[in-house]
Amino acid sequence: MAKAEDLDQRVKGNGILRTVSPTATVAEAANLMAQYRVGCLLVIGKDEQAVGIVTEADITRKASAQSLDLSCVTVSDIMTREVIGCTPATPLATLNWIMAEYNIRHLPILEKGEPVGMVSSRDIHAYEREVAEAQAQWHRPSTAAPAGQTRQAAQNGPENRDQTRREP
Length: 168
Prior knowledge:
The protein is an alpha+beta fold.
């Protein structure tokens, strides 16, 4: 069964956790998100502990929607302070449940309170797609035509077999 650390390593591969200081401006945070092509940054305080998380939604809903000057507002002004996270061993089903329960799309991976990674709903979808594609490779039906039927009819599937010609 897949765990948080599997998704972080397998889907992302780079193992780099993107962070920002609580004293950075929202404009700086937005630029970092764009530069790294991520939807959130973990906010790390002086003691190297996660003190919050800032997401694209935070920027849109709390800063832009209120017409705040993003170069004057700090990350600590708009960040979500309650960091909901998981451990590296958290199972995939639990990750899905946490995200649905709290209506969030990003989960920091914390090991002994220290941030070590991030899992997003997009990572979960990518992983599930990868697994489904691998399973499809193993279970792909043969395209060999049954006796008395053309190869094209076999590929068209049962819904179109009446419209295909039979071989003598």
